[in-house]
Here is the input.
Amino acid sequence: MTTRPTSESLAAGPSLDDALAANRAFYHAFSSRDLATMESIWARGVPVLCIHPGWPPLMERAAVLSSWRDIMKNPASPNAYSRNDRAFLYGKTAIVVCEEVLDGGVLAATNIFIEELGSWRLIHHQASPIAVQIKEAETPPPRHQLH
Here is the structure.
């Protein structure tokens, strides 16, 4: 999605394009196992949250970053990138919804960013399996008649 910042959005702070760039930076840090960048992406001034697939919710920055350290240290950890990113701006909050592509499949993901010190910083990441592939979901399933 290409969004052109307006003079109003520039005056208000980071743009939708900046939110999409922050989202790409998050997935790049994940795939390249760059813990320093991952730590810089997450907000410092507010509580943060993360829900990895199949995990209980993690609350507070230390627990969230500890989970990413463990994931990144694991040699079997998958590579990841995002596709079909869509960003939505709500004042000083940006929500990016995307497909998180892993070596083993595709997840639906939501990443929420807030403006912190002039940049988008991640406050919430959640990913969950997609039950039906997107292309398949566009075609309605056949109807079966019940007797």
Remarks:
- Residues 16-32 form the longest helix (17 residues).
